[in-house]
Amino acid sequence: MDYFKQDLTSLHELLVKKEISVTELVKETFATIKQRDQKLAAFLTLNEQTALEQAALLDQNGVDPENILAGIPLAIKDNIVTKDLRTTAASKILENFQPIYNATVMDKLAVKQVITVGKTNLDEFAMGGSTENSAFKITKNAWDQTKVPGGSSGGSAAAVASGEVIGALGSDTGGSIRQPAAFNGIVGVKPTYGRVSRFGLIAFASSMDQIGPLTRTVKDNALILNAISGVDPHDATSSTQSVPDFAAGLDGDIKGMRIAVPKEYLGKGIAADVREAIQNAINTFEKLGASVAEVSLPHSKYGVPVYYIIASSEASSNLQRFDGIRYGYRAQDVKNLEDVYVKSRSKAFGDEVKRRIMLGTFSLSAGTYDAFFKKAAQVRTLICRDFAKVYRDYDLILGPTAPTTAFGIGEDIDDPVTMYMNDILTIPVNLAGLPGMSLPAGFSNGLPVGLQLIANQFDEQTLYRAGYAFEQATDFHKQVPAIGGQN
Amino acid sequence: MAITADEVKHVAGLAKLAFTDQQLQKFTGQMDEIIKMVQQLSEVDTTDVPVTTHVTDAKNVMRADVAEKGTDRELLMKNVPDSQDGYIKVPAIIDESGEA
């Protein structure tokens, strides 16, 4: 199956009309994955046998014409637990972990008869922006295999961008869906905090983690978000807000939409080629009838330090559960119980995870709590207020997703601070719990540039309407990387 | 504020992590860089600014206190590294080597 020639709507039609069976679709998908993944290394685990069994059952019972996701093969980031399918979070500590339950999003996709083809690579425990922190393999960018795919959802993004699958789930704590979507030239959405249940998402920073879809088109993205949204009794922070049809009302008409561009988002530190692509995008939105004005988010420059304190503090607490006792790696050369904890964790966590646990433990410890954690939580309030003020007068905020296009593999890995600054444009969105989208807005030296749209809480509809209008007015999403077998 | 190797060692103890001397050196340098980066927050005036620890508008989420069937015990043991007679097996809390 050539996923570059399909979207969910056309693929569904082929399945309903039986121009292709679910089994054929699944077989072709695995054939493509096996071929392209030799170069890409997007997947950690394939689910071939179960996927083929599910496909056979669907072929036997017929594809429901009312269910657009029936029989659609999707890829799942490997920090989302899948019952009886190995889930590692790309960590040695969970190398052989077989979950005994499904994440809520997986149950929801199962109801929609989605077929899970496999689990995709990530930075260990979703900590990183290049997928180089995986304990198992280095995933490559779909457009240039010497570049990183971004992260932490780098495997999901590369799999979608290379045409291995039509869509995937990722997770986003500080930009982990949007930045890899930008680096790979696809659409990635981090929903409003609480829109999607976090139950079964291996916890990193619980006040910011959200699951969301990565796809090649805006509408496909909306269709998948429809399927995974909604309140969940297993996640007390999931929202009781009603879930609208995100794919409805995508008509390209955004006349009168009020768009704000924070001046901090086009300032120094943003590469010239990225700035130019975003300026072109602004012109496109104006031609579409939106009004665009400059605003200020004065505290956004503190987003990175606030995030690294808060996310690391939450992580240091969440990762206490990995102690070698009930599941995961257990060190063998131990003399007592304390040894089990210390040696298991020291051997099986990677360096970036250790750095974050250390920073978090430090920020929360007596003597530093007020100056670090409390201070960061106060500045977080100021960042939230900056956004709230803008949304009194505007519908949408626009800027780049990342300061540069994809960087080279190995370039920044030993320099944590430079790596962290990469997230400066995505992090404030998580701190404030807002929904954000990255979509293709151009190319520079053959690498995609991502445009970021940010809406007010629970206003994903505005994101999708604006994203769809931009997509219809441009052809960046129609470009195919060389690994896709064309061009 | 510069962080010393001793402080890093202390934090590692709290976090149940151990480092070799070489790792400790690398981590101390990197932690120092990170801490310098996050210390720019001290320039922000946060007088009377409340903390934000979550961004949902939900308060306490209540449910009826109804007993539900728990997870099957055998299933729960599926990923346990070492077990005996249906219990999780761990080494003694006190050093088994006999050295104090």
UniProtKB/TrEMBL annotation, chain A:
GO MF terms held by the record: ATP binding; glutaminyl-tRNA synthase (glutamine-hydrolyzing) activity; transferase activity
Domain Amidase as annotated: residue spans: 24-463
One GO cellular component term: glutamyl-tRNA(Gln) amidotransferase complex
Enzyme active site: 77, 152, 176
EC code(s) of this entry: 6.3.5.7
Source organism, top-level taxon: Bacteria
Pfam families, sorted: Amidase
GO biological process: translation
InterPro entries listed in its UniProt record: Amidase, Amidase_CS, Amidase_dom, AS_sf, GatA
Keywords carried by this UniProt record: ATP-binding, Ligase, Nucleotide-binding, Protein biosynthesis, Transferase
Gene3D superfamilies according to UniProt: Amidase signature (AS) domain
Enzymatic reactions: L-glutamyl-tRNA(Gln) + L-glutamine + ATP + H2O = L-glutaminyl-tRNA(Gln) + L-glutamate + ADP + phosphate + H(+)
Function: Allows the formation of correctly charged Gln-tRNA(Gln) through the transamidation of misacylated Glu-tRNA(Gln) in organisms which lack glutaminyl-tRNA synthetase. The reaction takes place in the presence of glutamine and ATP through an activated gamma-phospho-Glu-tRNA(Gln).
Family assignment from sequence similarity: Belongs to the amidase family. GatA subfamily.
Assembly information from the UniProt record: Heterotrimer of A, B and C subunits.
HAMAP family given in the database record: GatA
Protein known as: Glutamyl-tRNA(Gln) amidotransferase subunit A
Automatic annotation (TrEMBL), chain B:
Iron-sulfur among keywords: no
GO molecular function: asparaginyl-tRNA synthase (glutamine-hydrolyzing) activity; ATP binding; glutaminyl-tRNA synthase (glutamine-hydrolyzing) activity; transferase activity
Catalytic activity entry: L-aspartyl-tRNA(Asn) + L-glutamine + ATP + H2O = L-asparaginyl-tRNA(Asn) + L-glutamate + ADP + phosphate + 2 H(+); L-glutamyl-tRNA(Gln) + L-glutamine + ATP + H2O = L-glutaminyl-tRNA(Gln) + L-glutamate + ADP + phosphate + H(+)
ATP-binding among keywords: yes
InterPro entries: Asp/Glu-ADT_sf_sub_c, GatC
Purpose: Allows the formation of correctly charged Asn-tRNA(Asn) or Gln-tRNA(Gln) through the transamidation of misacylated Asp-tRNA(Asn) or Glu-tRNA(Gln) in organisms which lack either or both of asparaginyl-tRNA or glutaminyl-tRNA synthetases. The reaction takes place in the presence of glutamine and ATP through an activated phospho-Asp-tRNA(Asn) or phospho-Glu-tRNA(Gln).
Protein name in UniProt: Aspartyl/glutamyl-tRNA(Asn/Gln) amidotransferase subunit C
Organism of origin: Liquorilactobacillus vini DSM 20605
The encoding gene: gatC
